From TrEMBL:
Family in the record: Belongs to the organo anion transporter (TC 2.A.60) family.
Source taxonomy: Eukaryota, Metazoa, Chordata, Craniata, Vertebrata
Keyword rRNA processing among UniProt keywords: no
Tree of life domain: Eukaryota
Membrane topology: Multi-pass membrane protein
InterPro entries: Kazal_dom, Kazal_dom_sf, MFS_dom, MFS_trans_sf, OATP
Organism per entry: Cyprinodon variegatus
Residue stretches making up the Major facilitator superfamily (MFS) profile domain: 1-598
Protein name: Solute carrier organic anion transporter family member
């Protein structure tokens, strides 16, 4: 009894430890996703804080993938041989350090505010030192630290769990991990509301609002929060055992194939790299037409997804005049939950109707193409350019102009000695924005802070009839009223498109697994994730950012010289280039997907046809054998001696007499 109680106590402790390991692992992976999506939500803030172009910000965003892919195979290989929980703890610690380095800002503030005052030449040299490199390195360090968390965390549990429990654990992992991006955008929304130097400046003296293109939110605060959470979550992993006891009596249970959220099992990639059959296996894999075409389509689709996900919030800001805080909030509470529900229902459809490979590919294509058609509708949900004198309209407000350095000047402000590089927009009562009070020809002002009003503005008085107000107030003029209706339509189409697109995510993922031979399954998943992340995750933010920069109408000028961040974009060109690039990439991918469906139909039709022919042949053989056995049976019956009825009666009587003799 004592031994039985000890055994029960040991197994109870084991189950509690396993539950703790599962929940804590899921929490860490969710925190990893939170930090990554928070980086996406802070793109605009980092761009303005360090006076960067969208191209540079895209490069910073891609640095995570660079660091992650650079050490993925090595860390996964050595991590599987060493103490995995401590390896994960070290990864969490490295991510925490990377997040802390990403929020580097104090030295930059000192340089910007002090050096410019002391020495102009030193200021120019300092501006060329590229302080944003600290953010780049911090993000890359986060990528390196993330490497062991997902593959080693899953394999640590799967190695010692029952086979029937593994799907449940992975389902819990995917469900909890989806919460990370949602909270990442919500955290980004909250931090974007707060001014970057909150606690260090008098907020009453701030003359800009969160909707102003110069507003910089407290982006560093979110990285500080995520760094603290990652640091705390790393502590329990240092004290976990090297391995857990196996559940039940399973002694030689093979390790199940664990699929990470990113679709890559690093352990199997390294396994294939370590055996001599890697190159033949890779040749067989890439020689499978369906897989190769699906890989090409995945690369194009992933490029469009990364570009959209990275710059979606910025598009909402520039096209519809939303603040960064509101844009991030809407993505977090509308788009991401729709994606989560879509992925869940897509998997449910696969399980409920037991879809074949061809049916799964058709479902994935149908849902993706419906989402693509909805994306085309977004071209019609637009807001016109804000009327800015000298940039989008002439000073009389009646004629559109193409941007030219001389067009910002007019007869009403040529004698004011205004700087063409200044950007301090003011709004007139007629809805026209002027680049600065000086460009508006204003002579006096009243009020303080955000309530400052400029009076006697000559450019305003010459543009409108006598008797009109000649005053302007700080800030850009808002969009027209019909823009809010366009934004509502855009969000409805965007959420519906996200939901329908995600319905085909699980079936499309299963097609990759089932269109190849089982022995190439893990290699196929690894190559697919590795190629798409390398050719999509790294370059897509850079060239998307470069094309967005081409639509800029007014660049800021750094205090110490040099071009800074963009202050205003051509909304029409921004919409056409941004949505056009996404639709071109997605549209091209469908040619590959259609070819895959055709190949799969032929492949599985041929397989089914061969199976039917084999069944027909087997049935014919059985009929022939049955027919050949029938004559032999008849011959055997004919050769056996036949007894007459009288003989039969004698035999029966004899048996009855024998029975009576035994009884007596």
């Amino acid at each position: 009894k004592i031994n039985l109680k000890k055994k029960e106590l040991c197994w109870t402790t084991f189950y509690l430890l396993q539950i703790f390991c599962n929940t804590h692992r899921d929490k860490v992976i969710s925190l990893k996703a939170l930090t990554g999506t928070y980086m996406k939500s802070s793109i605009t803030q980092i761009e303005r804080r360090f006076d960067l172009s969208s191209t540079h910000v895209g490069l910073i965003d891609g640095s995570f993938e660079m660091g992650n892919l650079l050490f993925l195979a090595m860390v996964s290989h050595f991590g599987a041989q060493l103490h995995r929980p401590r390896f994960i703890a070290a990864g969490c610690l490295l991510m925490a350090i990377g997040a802390l380095l990403t929020e580097y800002k104090i030295s930059y503030d000192m340089v910007s505010l002090c050096v410019c005052i002391l020495l102009l030449s030193a200021c120019v040299r300092e501006s060329s030192s590229h302080m944003w490199i600290y953010v780049f390195l911090g993000n890359a360090l986060r990528g390196i630290g993330e490497t062991p968390v997902t593959p080693l965390g899953i394999s640590y549990i799967d190695d010692f769990a029952k086979a029937e429990n593994s799907p449940f654990y992975i389902a819990c992992l995917q469900t909890i991990t989806l919460l990370g991006p949602m909270f990442g955008f919500l955290l980004g929304s909250y931090c974007a509301k707060l001014y970057v130097d909150i606690g260090y400046v008098d907020m009453e003296s701030i003359t800009i609002t969160p909707k102003d293109s110069r507003w910089v939110g407290a982006w560093w605060m979110g990285f500080f929060v995520s760094s603290s959470l990652l640091l705390i979550s790393s502590i329990p992993f240092w004290f976990l055992p090297r391995s857990l006891p196996r559940q039940g009596d399973e002694k030689d249970k093979p390790t199940p194939v664990s699929l990470t959220l990113d679709g890559i099992d690093s352990y199997f990639i390294v396994s294939f790299l370590c055996i001599t059959g890697f190159l033949p296996s890779l040749k067989r894999l890439l020689g499978t037409p369906a897989y190769f075409l699906l890989l090409c389509g995945s690369i194009l689709k992933f490029n469009s997804f990364i570009g959209l996900f990275t710059f979606k919030a910025k598009y909402m800001e520039q096209q519809f005049g939303q603040s960064a805080s509101r844009a991030n909030f809407l993505i977090g509470v509308l788009n991401l939950p729709a994606v989560a529900v879509g992925i869940f229902l897509g998997g449910l459809l696969m399980r409920r109707y037991k879809l074949s490979v061809v049916s799964g590919a058709q479902l994935s294509f149908a849902t993706s193409f419906m989402g693509y058609l909805l994306l085309l509708l977004q071209f019609g949900t637009k807001c016109d350019n804000r009327p800015v004198a000298g940039l989008t309209v002439s000073y009389n407000g009646t004629q559109s102009v193409s941007f030219d350095g001389e067009m910002v000047f007019s007869e009403c402000n040529r004698d004011c000695s205004c700087s063409p590089d200044e950007w301090d927009p003011v709004c007139s009562d007629k809805g026209i924005t002027y680049v600065s009070p000086c460009m508006a020809g204003c002579l006096s002002s009243s009020g303080r802070g955000k309530n400052t009003v400029f009076h006697n503005c000559s450019c305003v008085s010459t543009s409108f009839p006598p008797g009109s107000s000649t005053s302007v107030r700080l800030g850009q003029c808002p969009h027209a009223k019909d823009c809010s209706r366009s934004f509502t339509s855009y969000m409805a189409v965007s959420v519906l498109s996200s939901f329908i697109n995600s319905l085909g995510a699980t079936p499309g993922y299963m097609v990759i697994i089932r269109c190849i031979s089982p022995d190439l399954k893990s290699l196929a998943l690894g190559i697919q994730a590795l190629v798409t992340r390398t050719l999509g995750g790294i370059p897509a933010p850079v060239y998307f950012g470069a094309l967005i920069d081409s639509t800029c109408l007014k660049w800021s000028i750094k205090k110490c010289g040099g071009r800074g961040a963009c202050r205003i974009y051509d909304s029409n060109m921004y919409r056409v280039i941004f949505l056009g690039l996404i639709t071109c990439l997605s549209g091209t991918s469908y040619f590959f997907i259609i070819a895959v469906i055709i190949l799969l139909k032929r492949q599985f039709w041929k397989t089914d046809r061969e199976t039917e022919l084999q069944q027909v042949k087997a049935s014919k053989r059985s009929e022939i054998n049955a027919q050949s056995d029938a004559p032999e049976e008849r011959v055997a019956r004919s050769r056996s001696p036949k007894l007459s009825s009288g003989t039969k009666e004698c035999i029966v009587l004899e048996k009855d007499l024998e029975g009576l003799g035994e009884i007596s």
